[in-house]
Specification:
The protein has about 450 residues and is α/β, with parallel strands linked by helices. It is built from 12 helices and 15 strands.
Length: about 450
């Protein structure tokens, strides 16, 4: 069993800063704006010999709530339910608030192992506020400053003590028999990305709302399907630069693009109730520039009145995405779960295609044949010196020639299309490099 550590507290106490310290990287967005973290953010990490799953949560607060605040509260409650250890983070630089006491009451009733973490111990007011937090009724609190890494060792020591008391045995770090396939779920705001993730997981792991921009951080969640591990990366909706009005939204978009960097395959979710937009094409362009695998998923087909609409939409889509003829298209409904499992099947196929290797001799003979078939002014006794596949994931082919400029844009497209026709490389961008003979 991999133990789960949930970080809980009211807004703006430093939960995400502590999460990042424990994980060892800037996974959660940090901001002085209360309520920055909305969903549960999951990240594997290590504490000594233990592999653990850290969970960051949105701030719990009480009183009158709007729809989003209520959902944030529900997400934190789910994290409490999942956790083996709860780190209750409070702001030691200020007196305890009614929200702090309300959260403490919930945690006491949960029956979970709770560690009280008094953050911001470097504050001048810390010592006078310290005694007040004993009223929560937990064991001796840990004093720390997450932003300066002070007290982290003491916190980890307490966590390990709980693991041992619960007889949680460290899991040996061994090589995975099956590689994890990282799938980034991308798209404009409000196209159904989080709904799709929830449908694939079979639970409400990400907050779903009709308000555009609900998901701010990228969320990683692992799932097993047909003996294969998939890591689903749900991301904030990506808007055009001119519409990124607020700093947090801009930062979330950056995180979405960074999520693309660490993915193997991107699922571009498109709203089937609307025409393909310029922003859909822009996001597709980002995916191509990163040379990732790509699945085009048209969502909300439960709104289609007939099967003919799918064919009509596909024709319109091909016109908009004429540069993505190699990308598979699936029509899905996150609401009814129709066709959603095809995403896993396609992802596995694309993952294999990205690792396909063409023998050098076979590749050179094939290239010679297609050039002889359409010489287009570049033909000479030896149009290239050598050609070989120089990389996989993504596939990369390097052609050494005396005059790379003779291979103009159209002819390079012809070569790529010919390679795809023979070797497929379904669903993945490929890179063809022309180098001058040295």
């Amino acid at each position: 069993m991999i133990p789960v550590i949930a970080i809980i507290g009211r807004p703006n106490t430093g939960k995400s800063t502590l999460f990042n310290r424990l994980v060892g990287s800037r996974v959660a967005i940090i901001s002085k704006v209360a309520g920055t973290t909305r969903d549960r953010i999951y990240q594997f990490g290590e504490i000594n010999e233990y592999k653990v799953l850290f969970v960051d949560t949105g701030g719990m607060q009480y009183g009158e709530k709007d729809n989003i605040e209520s959902a944030v509260h529900d997400q934190a409650q789910l994290a409490i339910k999942e956790a083996d250890v709860i780190v209750f983070v409070v702001d030691g630089s200020s007196p305890a608030t009614s929200d702090d006491f309300a959260v403490a009451d919930i945690l006491r009733k949960s029956g979970k192992n709770v560690i009280l973490a008094l953050n911001k111990s470097d504050s001048g007011k810390f010592s006078e506020n310290f005694p007040e937090y004993y009223k929560f009724g937990f064991d001796e609190p840990v004093q720390l400053s997450a932003i300066h890494s002070a007290g982290i060792d003491d916190l980890e020591e307490k966590i390990i003590k709980i693991f041992k008391s619960k007889k949680i045995v460290p899991i040996a770090q061994t090589a995975k028999t099956d590689a994890q396939i990282n799938i980034a779920i991308l798209g404009r705001p409000n196209v159904g990305k989080s709904s799709l993730v929830n449908a694939l997981l079979g639970e409400k792991r990400a907050i779903v709302s009709e308000i555009p921009g609900t998901t701010r951080d990228s969320l990683d969640t692992q799932i097993q399907y047909n003996n294969q591990t998939y890591n689903l990366i749900d991301t904030a909706g990506i808007r055009r630069a001119g519409k990124r009005k607020y700093f947090m939204e801009k930062l979330s978009v950056l995180r979405g693009l960074k999520a693309l960097e660490r993915s193997d395959i991107a699922v571009l979710v498109i709203d089937g109730s609307q025409k393909v937009s310029h922003q859909d094409c822009n996001i597709a362009g980002e995916i191509i520039s990163e040379k990732k695998g790509l699945i085009l998923a048209v969502n909300k087909i439960d709104l289609f009145e007939s099967e003919d609409e799918e064919e009509k939409y596909l024709r319109s889509m091909k016109s908009s995405f004429d540069f993505l003829a190699w990308a598979p298209v699936i029509f899905i409904s996150a609401k009814t779960c129709r066709n959603i499992r095809q995403i896993f099947d396609l992802a596995s196929r694309i993952y294999a295609e990205r690792r396909k290797q063409i023998p050098q001799k076979e590749l050179e003979e094939f290239l010679m044949d297609i050039i002889l078939e359409h010489p287009s002014g570049i033909m000479r006794r030896k149009p290239f010196e050598s050609a070989k596949q120089t990389n996989t994931d993504p596939p990369e082919i390097t052609i050494i020639t005396r005059d790379p400029d003779k291979f103009n844009f159209s002819y390079r497209r012809y070569i790529e299309n010919s390679i795809r026709k023979k070797y497929m490389f379904t669903g993945t961008a490929i890179r063809i490099i022309f180098k001058k003979t040295s």
